[in-house]
Amino acid sequence: MKQEATLILVAKGSQYGEQWKKRLREGKSIILGRSPHSGWAVNWDERISREHAVLLLQRGQLTVTRMDRATNPIKFGWRRPKQFTMKPGQEFQIGRTTFRMVEVMETPKITVGDRFTISREVATGPLGKLYRASDNSSDMPVALKLIDARWAANPQVEDRLLQQTQDMAKIREGNVVLILDSGRHKNELFLATEYVVGTSFADLLRKNGVLSFQRSVQFMRDAARGLASLQTQGLVHRNLTINNIFVRSTGSVQLLDVGILHTMSEISELYSGQEEPTEGIIDYISPEMLTGNDAVDVRSDIYSLGCIWYHLLTGQPPFPLDEFSQKANAHVEFSPEPIRELNSQVPEVVVSIVDRMMAKDVNERFQSTEELINVLSSPQFTGISVVCPECGESYVVKHSLAGRRVKCKLCDSAINIRAIVETA
After folding, report:
1. 369 in Cβ contact with 227 (< 8 Å)
2. Does the pLDDT of residue 242 top 90, yes or no?
3. Are residues 348 and 207 in the same domain?
4. Is residue 424 pLDDT above 50, yes or no?
5. Going edge to edge, which strands form the sheet with 188-194?
6. Coil, strand or helix at 413
7. DSSP letters along 184-219, please?
8. Which of 386, 387, 371, 381 minimizes the C-alpha distance to 422?
9. Which of 51, 76, 106 corresponds to the end of one domain?
């Protein structure tokens, strides 16, 4: 948003705490005094009369007129005039108080949808701009996306956004961002969601490098649960990237930015005109979306999530090529460089899961989020299930205890923990 100049009058006395700032408004007269009937009070200075001067801002200049009943003069430079005009940066004095006119640059407040007031711009993307805003009904912070006019003019995009908002408003699970509202603002569309405080996968990679496979498994499990929540409302995300999956301070993962572009022509247009290739949907898009299959389902999202997991483990997207067309063709025709050639610390069991998620043929992938979640929740990732042979008490213990003997917490009997053997 373009910033605008605002003129402020700053009053400052000789003692600590004796100060205020007031905004000057064009064409509006203000009475300045120690305790004016209506106006700006300077109640700390006994040398200022009850009503001492009249202030009037016109065309960016402030005219100050001393009132007839004012006792003490107004000092402006070396003079003590009855009336004078001042510009930003100049000051005058009454008694022991100095008044300075200053110009500050402010972002004008814009209200969207009669409910949200924009505070500041957060980011700019191919679809539009993202702002931090506040919900006027609750004063809670929100993330407000304004979608560019070229997309807002597409009735199909608008219909998808409004329908998506209705469907996602029913989702209350913690792994999907909470949708608040959507609609039209002038020639743009807007989407308001909860303001997520956290770190994106992209930022995690930039700060820490590749993730450990243990940590990445937890993130993928949470992300899959988010996809399952969308699936309950018949939604396919279609827009998974490392930039719109966030990790909250609690460690849980949250999905943002469900896609409103469904066709290959729309996605191609999104990337047209970009001077430099950026990591976005094309780095994680499924082959069936690229070949124009409109009837994509959750298996398309599973492919995209597999590509993201590949990136977290290796530090690069599956096909780190330069051109949009090259990346698109690679998703359809080629296999990425093997994970273990880029990161030998990744177990074969994890590689096999990622490879299955990224299978070109949808029928060779995990067929549901439930199936994927079950695999990612198996003991080899979450811990080892053990049962005491004496009392029957069951536990889940850390992998580091595999092959060792521990004592039952209930009856003190010895429990031999089986070793876990990784298999492809």
Report:
1. yes
2. yes
3. yes
4. no
5. 111-112, 116-124, 128-135, 141-147, 188-194, 179-185
6. coil
7. EETTEEEEEEE---EEEHHHHHHHH-SPPHHHHHHH
8. 381
9. 106
Same domain, 220 and 293: yes
The share of the chain scoring above pLDDT 70, in percent, equals 92
Question: Domain boundary residue among 130, 162, 195?
Answer: 195
Q: Do residues 161 and 214 make contact, with C-beta atoms less than 8 angstroms apart? A: no
Q: What is the pLDDT of residues 368-386, one digit of tens each?
A: 999 999 999 887 776 666 7
CATH of the domain at 168: 3.30.200.20
Instruction: Spell out the residues 6+ positions from residue 299 whose beta carbon is closer than 8 angstroms to its own.
Output: 286, 362, 365, 366, 367
Asked if 189 and 182 count as a contact pair (C-beta separation under 8 A), the reply is yes
CB 296 within 8 A of CB 362: no
Count of the separate structural domains present in the chain: 4
Parallel, antiparallel or unpaired: strands 40-41 and 29-33: parallel
Q: Supply the DSSP symbol for 319.
A: S
In a domain, 128, yes or no: yes
Whether the full predicted model's pTM is greater than 0.90, yes or no, is no
Compute the distance between CA of residue 402 and CA of residue 415 in angstroms, rounded to an integer.
11
| Band of residue 340 on the pLDDT scale cut at 50, 70, 90 | very high
Is residue 422 included in any domain, yes or no? no
> Is 312 inside any structural domain?
yes
Same domain for 158 and 177, yes or no, is yes
Which contiguous run of DSSP H or E holds residue 385? strand 384-387
Please tell me the distance from the alpha carbon of residue 331 to that of residue 267, in angstroms, as a whole number.
15
Give CA separation, 70 vs 24, 37, 45, 67, 130, in Å.
22, 15, 13, 5, 52
In eight-state DSSP terms, residue 399 is G
- The position carrying tokens 């300045």 is 32
Domain ranges, residue 119: 109-195
DSSP string, 250-305: TS-EEE-------SHHHHHHHHTT-SS--SSGGGT--HHHHTT-S---HHHHHHHH
Q: Which residue has the tokens 């407000």?
A: 144
Runs of H (alpha helix) within 79-212: 149-152, 155-168, 201-208
